[in-house]
Structure prediction request, 497 residues.
Amino acid sequence: MSNPLSLYNSLTRQKEVFEPLHAGYVGLYVCGPTVYSDVHLGNCRTFTSFDIIYRYLMHKGFKVRYVRNITDVGHLTDEGEDKMSKGARLAKLEPMEVAQRYTVGFHDMMREFNNLPPNIEPRATGHIIEQIEMVQQILANGLAYEANGSVYFDVAAFNEKHGNEYGKLSGRKIDELLAESRELKAQSDKKNPSDFAIWMKATEDHILRWNSPWGEGFPGWHLECSAMSTKYLGEEFDIHGGGNDLKFPHHENEIAQNAGSCGCGGARYWLHTNMLLMNGRKMSKSDGNTITPQQLFTGDSPHVTDSYSPMMLRFFMLQTHYRSPMDLTDEALQAAKKGYQRLTEAWANLQELEGLGGAQNGTVGKELTEGLAAAYAEMDEDFNTPKALAKVFELVSRINALKGGQLSLKEVSKETLEDFKKGLGTLLFDVFGLRDEGEAAGASGETLGKVMDLVLDLRAQARAEKNWTMSDKLRDALNDAGIIVKDGKEGAEWTVG
RNA sequence: GGUCGGUUGGCCGAGUGGCUAGGCUCAGGUCUGCAAAACCUGCUACAGCGGUUCAAAUCCGCUACCGACCUCCA
Prediction:
């Protein structure tokens, strides 16, 4: 926890030094998915970004409570229909069955990407009481009004009372919002177009419904995050995150609801991740510009020429800053795949320097220590993973040179080497959250290893006898089987490519 | 139409008022029986036009283009 951590606060639009509300503790809330369909690849990017943020906060020594909700009610579709009940009707399933199915699918996908589970994963339907209470508070404060069984947040009244706070996060001007005479149908109950529902009256065919002081209905989408974040993290807490497409109206309304109910600030730092694009455009199902995580894993899509593993994709994400849009193209993925291989091979090479090392440090030893420190330091600059990764790649060259003999291990002390291994491993696996896929080879890997030892031993014999025909035959045959042989100073090595 | 953000070398992608990003590709070299890998070297960019400055890709203005949000969205 030595160096200060800076992060970009969307609320103030600048980088700020992070200071937790309570020393040593961090409350982190991230808007989770709506579980009415399979996870979108963009979700994966956002939650992976926050996973790295979560991991780094823990690495800094903070005790973090990470809350990420599951939205299983209240989120309206274009047709004004609840997403959960829509999915249910189409599939002839209970809403909770739909929610369960996609929640499980979501968790599976998070595991694929090696995202740690949050500490609390509250469901909107499990917090109806809290949400009703919040509506009551807002009503009691005179910042909402009931109309025809629904309750609307009164933006104009809120702004009068709270010094024109509404619009602060998204940079929207209340006058423009009010003046915006959008031709919205069925908004007759609202006083102003900018008002939003915090409780919705259930129509007759609406499946998900609860009793409330205003009749049967269900909570507005924006309300759940206000209710659940404050329940688990307090009326004021440290960090709130989400995709930047949620800034308005979702997060803006959330802030208003928090202030409108308890008069408290909510989150102090707002972090927003940028969108995932494909071929320079927004992913969209309607025009075919879309790809699922599964399709990337298998390569079964017209948009890609190859398959990409979850960890390779995670690496790809690390190469772009979380606040920049990330453009998914096959060409970029290809480049990243090779870069990722280079990184994992360097890590494997480093492990082979086991038990070696000189008596004291020369230039190389210092470079390793300083380079690693520089990589960590970049994480303190608003979680700058691309820059941290750049530092790591400078270290990759050093590692490979040590392995290849271009640099001497005498230049690196035993202690430095061991510290370096540990420190780099922590950065790659604990902070970046990459998984050492090499270790997961399992029993079949062991068998293959033994066979390969034998084959390479035979090939070495052939080479010693200058029997190049035999030697090359073995190499080519292995190549056909997808095994790449590399001849080094210390004999041949192989990788499954 | 309104609001906000972006435009970096062959591709991707960081970044700071003056000093090397990094990955991939490409070219040359070292090593090697050959190849691959690895290592070394090179390829030196910041949309256009103006302005501020001793100095700008980095600050300001205008233009062009792209994107996001304004309606469900991570």
